[in-house]
Amino acid sequence: MEQTENFFERMARERNITVEEMKKIISERIEQGLHDPDPEKRKSWEAIPCKGDVPTPEEWLKYAVEKLDSEE
Known about the structure:
This protein has helices at 2-15, 19-34, 39-46, 57-71. With 72 residues, the protein is mostly helical.
């Protein structure tokens, strides 16, 4: 979990915004992806495992890192 927070902190610092603002941007992008008119793009966002209806930024990050690791 600490690495996750470090990632969000770094991303926020690079953009000169708060961690909360960074997570909000990611959440908005997740929502956009889940409602993309292209079914293939939507399907890739829907593949993110999550506890609720919409993945959290933390769930998105975990999925992205695991996907990258599996491709190496």
